[in-house]
């Protein structure tokens, strides 16, 4: 947490996003085992929790796309974009934006690990 919230990292995220108001990064460890999923949501929060961008840092080596666990962006009733949780990749997107994590198949041989959170301006 210290490294990702260092002045150098915060400056990098400000430059990358064009948002000079980013002040900190909040992360949590996530694990999606077979049978897990995350329903559609948009990461909106109260004004006291000023989330600007969502971030997902994927940590599972050799994830197979047919196992599921995809980060999916949704518009209306359509999945418009899908990200495979490739090891050492990062997804960064402005919130609020509708998204979900698809069902992890029962035959997946390992869980899907990630650090997920938000770039925040509060």
Features:
122 residues; mainly beta; Jelly Rolls; four-stranded antiparallel beta sheet; 40% strand; globular
What's the layout of helices and strands?
Elements: H1 7-17, E1 24-32, E2 38-41, E3 51-58, E4 71-75, E5 78-83, E6 90-94, E7 99-101, E8 112-120
Explain the overall architecture.
The protein is mainly beta and 122 residues long. It has a single domain, classed as q2cbj1_9rhob like domain (Jelly Rolls, Sandwich). 9% of the residues lie in helices and 40% in strands. The chain has 1 helix and 8 strands, in the order H-E-E-E-E-E-E-E-E. The chain has a 4-stranded antiparallel β-sheet, covered by helices on one side. Strands 2-7-4-5 form a 4-stranded antiparallel β-sheet, with no helix packed on it. A hairpin with a 2-residue loop joins strand 4 and strand 5. It starts with 6 loop residues before the first helix and ends with a strand. The relative contact order is 0.32.
